[in-house]
Predict the structure.
Amino acid sequence: MADRLNLLTDIDGVAVGHSTDLALGSGVTAIIFDAPAVASCTVLGGAPGGRDTALLDPAMTVDAVDGLVLSGGSAFGLDAAGGVQAGLREIGRGLQVGTARVPLVPQAILFDLINGGDKDWGLHSPYRDMGYAAFKAAGKGAFALGTVGAGTGATTATLKGGLGSASAVSSQGHRIAAIVAVNALGTATIGDGPHFWAAPFEENDEFGGLGMPEAIDTRLRLKGGNVTATTIGAIVTDAQLTKAEAHRLSICGHDGLARALLPAHLPLDGDTVFAASTAKRERDDMASFMELCHLAASVMARAIARGVHEATALPVEGAQPAWRDRFADRIA
């Protein structure tokens, strides 16, 4: 469609905002829904961190949330959801419980505490304020990718990670998109070269159009030492979904994660994928849902590659090089 930006904001009723601190080497990304969205999530990494993820289990009572938060900062970053929650409460959003309103903003975090940024923030972490700033920055239309928001301090085993996004339209006209902060223990690229594991899913040369290399190097490449990582993201569609269907869609998002990162879902990864429906378009048959499941894997794989492809190195001594540093001659 002519108005597609190939971003999460291609989904009607979704806004995205970033808060980025390059000196800190970390950031926050807020995903805000115009109206409560049916949501669920799946955690397949062995070392996850999150807030209010339990309520997204299909067996739990609450169906819909006001937003989602992706953040750096490891456990300190969990403060970011409080900032987003404050912003939502400020504008009158939230679940009505008696005379109180409680904005619901589940969150996932990634580990970026040893990437060279200045984490000496004193008594209280900056993440609550960064969450509020990301909420205030949230808007429709284009938003930045790469070393921004939750992807600011992200790294992989071989190259700087980053914030990526991609979208697609189903044969029935339903829109679906992914957003992801790529901070993997493994790699998004093949061997020591510039090619991406997600190459078979690429559209319109969105991460360089390099295709696959002649030879595939599957040797294990990991971040050194006892280091935790985590790739966190969300799949959002305008198709009507039940909470159980959103849960299934989040699982299919992990399929895309596993196709774009090698290896994935390790004991020290915290890989978490949310899924949400804005319910702007009706959907009442299994075939259309299965197509959305297929597209969930595709957009997640593409978003991961875009996050690494668009990243730039942090402005600190010894920063991990970005794809654009290593392979500048391959940029069109």
About this structure: The longest helix spans residues 286-310. The chain has one domain: 8-316. The mean pLDDT is 95. The domain at 8-316 is CATH 3.60.70.12 (L-amino peptidase D-ALA esterase/amidase).
